[in-house]
Amino acid sequence: MKKNIPNRPDTSHEDASPVLPWWAGGIGIGLVLIVAVALVQPIGVSAQYVVLDGVLLHAVLPDIASTSPYLAKTAQGWTLATYEFFFVLGIPLGALVAAMATARFTTRVVPVEWRRRFGSNPGNRLVWSFLGGFLLLFGARFGGGCTSGHMISGISQLAISSFVFSAALFISGIVTARLLYRDGASRC
Amino acid sequence: MLILVLGLALGTAFGALLQLSGASSHTKIVNALRLKDLTIMKLILMAIGVGLMGVHLLDLFGLANMKVKELYLLGIVIAGGIFGVGFALTGYCPGTALAACAEGKPDAWVTVMGGLCGALAFAFLFPEVEESLMTIGRYGPVTIPDAIGIHGIWIAMPLGMACIWLAARLPNSGGAR
Question: Hey, are the CB atoms on A94 and B13 less than 8 Å from each other?
Answer without folding.
Answer: yes
